[in-house]
């Protein structure tokens, strides 16, 4: 396969001032000068990456953790280093995940001036009692104020995250959340069904009988309700968990589903190299070990998974089926030298009642997305 000359870049900040009650991702409160010097660690990491490859960067994504704990000056320094080391596209999408509780007028103005052109706000709910249950530091009013500030300051591409299928949630509660979300009119919406992860405060509360997890029927009804309300409001349901106004899809995340190269820096970050059949890498979550590797000028990314031809074909197919675009049969055959029917005759036969076909592409319906994990098991 032809080597890619373009890539995305993911920059991970593994610090949170307070861990949410549902979160099992790697994050920790910063100790000492860890946060103040984090931009220096990322810059060192980027230099090591650039010694190995320098593709044109089409998207940059500051994720976490809470990357909005970084100051605008730190963001400027990081982006300056990106441009020093890589050819960054003049039209690159540059996203920053932000906790509404961390945002002020000065930092929003600073982020915009630094070059952030897409803001992703982790609002999660517009109900204060629910926000407390989730362990979020902001209130609904703070979240609305942060969104309005960002819009007024000049952010023209703002995404909002919303969690559904919450303990004790009723259909009317979800409808009210969506009503308040639509009043803000974000450009992009991410919806996430609450997953109760092991060893989290929410799991302990469920085990203690303090709260109850919703059943599958309510989950499905909530998902379909969100689909209806958001598409009726003019959003495109372009991926299982994502909706967008016209021309406001998240290009960075779209590249993941298309198996495009994504370089990654920062402790806990995951990357993907699309060359050959593809391989995934992961950087250690041990901050001390991470710094030791940087001090030794060693790439801190270790191999997580390397794909053979069959695995690459399977992942290309089932990631594409996460999206409304689906899988283009002609493009697949051109890329791999085999048709979908030749590569996966039995799996496609099992999925015949779920796969829709239009022109030369296969795709899932929204109802089939509810069964996604089960359906893609035929390709694994």
CATH architecture of the largest domain: Alpha-Beta Barrel
In DSSP terms (H or I, runs of 4 or more residues), the helix count works out at 16
CATH topology annotation of the largest domain: TIM Barrel
Instruction: Quote the average pLDDT.
Output: 94
Structural class: alpha/beta
Helicity, in percent? 25-40%
Based on DSSP secondary structure assignment, what is the total number of beta strands? 15
Radius of gyration: 21 Å
Give the uncertain stretches in residue-range form: none
The main pleated sheet reads as:
9 strands, mixed
Strand order of the largest sheet: 7-8-6-5-4-3-2-1-9
Question: How is the secondary structure organized here?
Answer:
Elements: E1 6-13, H1 38-50, E2 56-64, H2 72-85, E3 88-98, H3 105-114, E4 118-124, H4 128-134, H5 140-153, E5 158-164, H6 171-184, E6 188-193, H7 201-207, H8 216-232, E7 236-239, E8 242-244, H9 251-257, E9 262-265, E10 270-273, E11 279-283, H10 287-295, E12 301-306, H11 309-320, E13 327-328, H12 329-336, H13 340-343, H14 345-350, E14 355-358, E15 361-364, H15 366-369, H16 372-376
Parallel strand pairs: 1-2, 1-9, 2-3, 3-4, 4-5, 5-6
Antiparallel strand pairs: 6-8, 7-8, 10-11, 11-12, 13-15, 14-15
Helix pairs in contact: 1-2, 2-3, 6-8
Structure description:
This protein is an alpha/beta fold. It folds into 2 domains: about 5-255, Alpha-Beta Barrel (TIM Barrel), CATH 3.20.20.70; about 310-380, Orthogonal Bundle (Arc Repressor Mutant, subunit A), CATH 1.10.10. Helix content is about 40%, strand content about 20%. The protein is built from 16 helices and 15 strands. It has helices spanning about 40-50, 70-85, 105-115, 130-135, 140-155, 170-185, 200-205, 215-230, 250-255, 285-295, 310-320, 330-335, 340-345, 345-350, 365-370, 370-375, and strands spanning about 5-15, 55-65, 90-100, 120-125, 160-165, 190-195, 235-240, 240-245, 260-265, 270-275, 280-285, 300-305, 325-330, 355-360, 360-365. It has a 9-stranded mixed sheet with strand order 7-8-6-5-4-3-2-1-9, with helices on both faces. Helix 1 runs parallel beside helix 2 and helix 2 (about 70-85) runs parallel beside helix 3 (about 105-115). The relative contact order is 0.12. The mean pLDDT is about 95.
